[in-house]
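B., you asked whether I could sanity-check this one before it goes into the benchmark set. Here's the sequence:
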Amino acid sequence: MMNGLPIADLAMLAVALLAAGALTGVLAGLFGVGGGAVIVPILFEVFGILGIDDEVRMPLAVGTSLAIIIPTSIRSFRGHYLKGAVDMSVLRAWAVPVVLGVVAGSLIARYADPWVFMLVFILVAGVNSIKLLFGNEKWRVAMDLPKGLALRAYGGLIGLLSALMGIGGGQISNIIMTLHNRGIHQAVATSAGLGVLISVPGALGYIYAGWGREGLPPDAIGFVSLLGLILVVPTTLLTAQIGVNLAHAWPKRKLEVAFGIFLAIVCARFVYAILT
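And here's what the prediction gave me:
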């Protein structure tokens, strides 16, 4: 028994986490995301079943997600880089402001109420869901990305929001790049590189943010669950290359619709959690 949960149920949760890890890896390569959009809501529900305190449940899911997507993001970025699809000039321009945004998000995480994390997730995932379900590839706000300070401001925004919702930045950067006339394959590949810049400082920041907090499970280091790492990471590593190959070989419309519906359901779940 753990927190009143039978061993058989724990085994089922472990299987669910392994399956989630497999899906995370595929999504990391396919959409240029670290998989946090999948892992965060799953961990949120799992930690709830295990009886984790509501005050730390959401930041624990976010911090653990950031730690989980470290190896996934590295593998995904390497795969896209070897295919020559990454825009390194954009990645270099975003590197410092992205990390600064992540640091700011980690500091906020130490003091923010749970609803703050949920609200950021709802806003970002909701916009992405709408774009996936109803968006047109011809939608544009400009014919190219801005230069200088404006481009770096995008990087800071990506880092801040990603750190607060536990993602590798792909959802946000994909939208920004495609709306600025960049091809989806380049956007996906470049977004994969952001996952590395976000996940490493993000995980370390959440360890700091949760250090000494009450209500955390015994396996947690700050807001990072070691059990979550052990169960999810292996399958993400095994399946990330599958997603990379799919991104360069398959039409993605049906998968985009499925992912958009999933995000909409998650948003509705977090709205319910905030209201209740």
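One thing to flag: DSSP finds ten helices and two strands in the chain. Otherwise nothing jumped out at me.
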